[in-house]
Amino acid sequence: MTSRQTRNRDRADRGIPEATVARLPVYLRALHALQERGVSTVSSEELAAAAGVNSAKLRKDLSHLGSYGTRGVGYEVEYLVYQISRELGLTQDWVVAIIGVGNLGRALAGYGGFASRGFRVAGLLDADEAIVGQEIAGMPVEHIDRLEDVIAERGVSIAVIATPAAAAQSVCDRVVAAGVTSVLNFAPVVLSVPDGVDVRKVDLSIELQILAFHEQRKAGGPGGYEAAGDGDRPSETAQYVEAVEL
Amino acid sequence: MTSRQTRNRDRADRGIPEATVARLPVYLRALHALQERGVSTVSSEELAAAAGVNSAKLRKDLSHLGSYGTRGVGYEVEYLVYQISRELGLTQDWVVAIIGVGNLGRALAGYGGFASRGFRVAGLLDADEAIVGQEIAGMPVEHIDRLEDVIAERGVSIAVIATPAAAAQSVCDRVVAAGVTSVLNFAPVVLSVPDGVDVRKVDLSIELQILAFHEQRKAGGPGGYEAAGDGDRPSETAQYVEAVEL
DNA sequence: AAGCCTTTGTGAATACATGCACGAAGTCAC
DNA sequence: GTGACTTCGTGCATGTATTCACAAAGGCTT
Fold it and tell me: Which strand D bases fall within 7 angstroms of a protein CB?
């Protein structure tokens, strides 16, 4: 099964830079859009524009997968879609479980962007008895007690954690113990996992905070108004509550 | 208003690396957790562990804001919270409008992590007549026609776009024309904006695709099974639909 | 079939980020 | 006050990512 590992792909494939991997889905999306418009061939310049990157960067990124372009012409859209999909592992189906069916979990369960890319949501789990049994996006919410069973029975390989922060680490421990090695975490905590397990984090408020930083910068430096520097230290900030519900 | 731009802050502040800015919210969160546990002082080693980073990196990051630590002791939690908050611009309130009140927009409207960090949701807008008028998280959904009015009247400075992909660019153009210079985009498209406008993107499916890539890697190379390389090029991939509803 | 034109793929230069390792600066005990 | 000890702040080396710029490669026209 793992026989022909590094067969084709001479030096490509081994060690595709992370930064490149992170951009491949963006290229893929742009390519799909072109495909729908009936475009069959695209230059690095055009595709780069559609993806919002520099064309040299795009070419270098693609060169990591192999040489799939034709000089003087560009890239064949359909073929490139296939190559990137394959590289990203989207030619196979991935079985996903969503743990935590609050507002966000619900949104994720109904998100069309998953199913269309080979991600099959095979389980919705929650600890809240009031939610268990409800049907969300055509699928019943199951009790968190069944977590290990669901993972084993349905071959879940990716866990999406959308629980409150307080529950996230223990849920994570359980899915990892059950054999899951890829976790997508929406809870606002840093999860610790053993080596060999990948965790990616999506944090809705971190992005806003980064925007706020730049926005403030445009308006003229941090603490620009009122006492800047080491003024009164507020003691009211302690009322932040991390137990936000997702 | 832009008068005292680069005033205080000698060499700090100017040019805090992006990578550092992106980590500050994580540190802040870890610090809040410590604060709740009554910890008043923390070493770089401890805080780094809580934030999931290397301690040297943490110290270097913090050094960009100034020297707020005490050698031999560590950092005073409360003071550091204040300094980071100030640097990120969280000591002032930011007025946010959420455009697109589908599943995701609803989840965002109810997300506790915004309000607790100085982000005030002052408007929910949607084009769907069936949704307009509904009350979400204690706030009425208004018609998208009122977008410019809402932005102007309430002083919206950050727009959160959670519309379907097809609507995102035109919504973006409108908020930018109305004077907004910070956009958080959840729609799966690359938005183009004039210079001076910041766009950050949160893409739920991109993260999954990155996980899939690594997961596949663990299992033994891309396309490891079946015809690898340049086999049959599927023509069915064209049925991807980008008009996912958010 | 020869030459022109376009566009790729990549070497080299630059910029950015990470992590080590250690001197400097402070605290605490006595 | 003095010395031992802890921990910060940072110079330097290493690694990673981006961008430029151009030669090599192919198609297209005549």
Answer: 5-11, 16-21, 24-28
